[in-house]
Specification:
single chain; 141 residues; mainly beta; five-stranded antiparallel beta sheet; four-stranded antiparallel beta sheet; 6% helix; globular
Length: 141
């Protein structure tokens, strides 16, 4: 699945220097689509996307560690239903895009182990439930 942050570079239009303190993307799963034969992946890994959705390599933080997120199970207050979420730290990605070190062509989500029978259903921003959430916190200096 490809995730895009289309207006990220618009932050550069603000005057002054800024530091990305934190950037987090939370993606909820669709629990009704889960079954015991094809469980959701225990973790998802982020890859840089090219313009044609090609895999351009692992998305890593500054020290080279790959960015992954575990499937966290919880019961949100709004629904009280068992819900899976993946929380990705995108601080290094946003910093590099804003500093124009990499292009903002999007991010690919994929299971860490590609040859296992797993399934996860996640929806885009055009739905009213289970939409991805993106939070970015900046400091202007």
């Amino acid at each position: 699945m490809k995730v895009e942050i289309p207006h990220l570079l618009d932050i550069n239009e603000f005057s002054g220097t800024r530091v990305v303190n934190s950037a987090v993307m939370t993606q909820e799963t669709v629990s009704a689509a889960e079954n015991r034969y094809f469980p959701p992946p225990s973790s998802l890994t982020l890859y840089l996307a090219g313009r044609g959705n090609q895999n351009r390599g692992l998305l890593t933080i500054a020290d080279g560690t790959q960015i992954t997120a575990s499937n966290n199970r919880s019961q949100p207050a709004g629904t009280n239903l068992d819900q899976g979420t993946y929380d990705f730290s995108l601080t290094s990605y946003c910093t590099r895009v804003l500093n124009r070190q990499i292009d903002n062509n999007g991010i690919l989500l994929a299971p860490h182990i590609l040859n296992s029978p797993e399934q996860v259903v996640i929806v885009g921003s055009n739905h009213t439930v289970n939409t991805p959430r993106f939070s970015i916190y900046l400091t202007r200096v």
